[in-house]
Amino acid sequence: MGVVACHTCDLLTRPSDAAGTTSLCPRCGAVVHRQKSNSIDRPLAFALSGLILFAIALTHPFLAMKSGGFVQETTLLTGIFELWKQHLYGLGALVLLTCALIPLAQLTGLLYILVPLRLNASAPGSVTIFRTILHVNSWAMMEVFLIGILVALVKLAKMATIVPGTAVMALGLLTVVTTAAMATLDPPLIWRRLDRRP
Ligand SMILES: [Zn+2]
Are residues 11 and 62 in the same domain? Predict the structure, then answer.
């Protein structure tokens, strides 16, 4: 691990890079560096469970609408298709991007980088992919979409009986799991591992 400046008193120190340790400034006692533990295994496990939740979200019913003996079920993909059919192209593309493509790319990208690192190797193009994942993270706004759905549900509930499907639950959990994968990730450690040439 390289030299790090204390944020409080600017003293230069070389913190320990052992997993799970917290390095304190020897002069003022402020936290200089905190090395996360299992920072490859944890995001890996979260990304894997994310993909499973994603498969559930795509294949299970999203909403069921009951109105006077008439039941209509939608999945996430048919929902996007419906938006498209009603000429809401921009909204359809936005939902497809933020709810399906970006989270999927983020999770598969993480697995693509972390699985080889776990086996002490690095996959070609990892540096570019990792940079993209960190950049795109601010664009994965599934939680905003979920709140939008909740608002729409409350409004629709006056007209018909709305039954949220398994996919809504799976998407909610997926948001939590993706956030956890990104939070347990330790970018400086990943950069160092990716830089190490065999
Ligand atoms: Zn200090």
Answer: no
40 alpha carbon – ligand 1 mean position (Å): 29
CA of 188 to the centre of ligand 1 (A): 21
Q: Are residues 30 and 52 in the same domain?
A: no
Sign of the dihedral defined by the CA atoms of residues 52, 58, 62, 68, in that order: negative
pTM: 0.75
The DSSP symbol for 139 reads: G
Question: Going by C-beta distance under 8 Å and a sequence separation of 6 or more, which residues neighbour residue 77?
Answer: 58, 100
Of 170, 98, 90, 173, nearest to 137 by C-alpha is: 98
Cα 22 to ligand 1 centroid, rounded to whole Å: 14
For 2-47, the pLDDT digits (tens) are: 788 888 899 998 887 777 788 899 999 888 888 777 888 999 999 9
If you measure from the C-alpha of residue 26 to the centroid of ligand 1, how many angstroms do you get, rounded to a whole number?
7
Number of structural domains found in the chain: 2
**189 CA to centre of ligand 1 in angstroms:** 23
